[in-house]
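Suppose you are handed only these lines of text.
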Amino acid sequence: TAKRDGRNRHRYFDPAMREAILHKRELIADLRDAIETELVVYYQPIFDCQLQRITKAEALVRWLHPEKGLISPAEFIPLAEECGLIIAIGQRVFDQVCQDLPALKSAYDDGFQVSINVSPIQFAHEETQLTQWVHLLNAHNLSCNDIIVEITEGVMLDPNCETIKKLMVFRDHGMHVALDDFGTGYSSLAYIYQYDIDYFKIDQCFISTLKVGSDTLALCEAMVLMAHKLGIQVVAEGVETTEQAELISAIGCDFIQGYLISKPQPLSVLVSDRKGVVFS
Ligand code: C2E
Ligand code: CA
Ligand code: CA
Ligand code: CA
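From them, the structure of the protein bound to calcium ion can be written out as follows.
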């Protein structure tokens, strides 16, 4: 896979490498000033297969750089994690979600939830943002139930148990927990049964290769079965075609997220463009 190639590639200090380092430094400097003014939060709808309507959305941060244009979070989030800016970014995203949730609730449903990506670095940070977050939610007449915290398997594998304890404090307050990119990390089955998780998000690499009779379909089926046995619901990520949607819902997947339903969009689009999406 591309990932494996990347990991094994030798590093040469050639001009391209130098260029990349300079580019990185410049981005970090820009990012520091951009957090309050140039970061925006987009929302990608999550479709409930049973209810046949949108009941949640994932908050995805975007950087609208005045000169470089739109910069993908895949580019700047790893940088932000490296230099610590992820703490301020995480707070910025949470603030925005609190501001936006009431509009989403009135456009969709009072039970509408927003799913927020929380980096392992944020959990490792001394001052947990939890108390701040609970205050913010209260100030907006929202509750912890309105929020799903998305973590990756990396959080579960952290040898520092403090991280997982913090996560469970979030859980105790009523926030829901989703395990993101499920199936791509190192096995953490041992952790899954120990901690109360609400959702698995099956990574899009499984969804993109779904075909009738394919191995990935068998894997997805096994993941859904395991999840349901554990009382966990399943979200399929990166669903782009009706064929994928039909296959994944036929094996009992609970939610669908992907370009088929909608790309991540600004709040205004989600609120005004509230169409009942039906794929089958
Ligand atoms: P992720 O959490 O796995 O988010 C899903 C990514 O898949 C998003 O990329 C989304 O735009 C993309 N996607 C959704 N549906 C489809 C589809 O049908 N096809 C394809 N090809 N792609 C689809 P995005 O928005 O570029 O975000 C990339 C990553 O950046 C996220 O991956 C997440 O790990 C991270 N990220 C984004 N926002 C935040 C944030 O506020 N905080 C933190 N810590 N990380 C964030
Ligand atoms: Ca996510
Ligand atoms: Ca994901
Ligand atoms: Ca559960």
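What can we learn from it? The mean pLDDT is 88. The radius of gyration is 19 Å.
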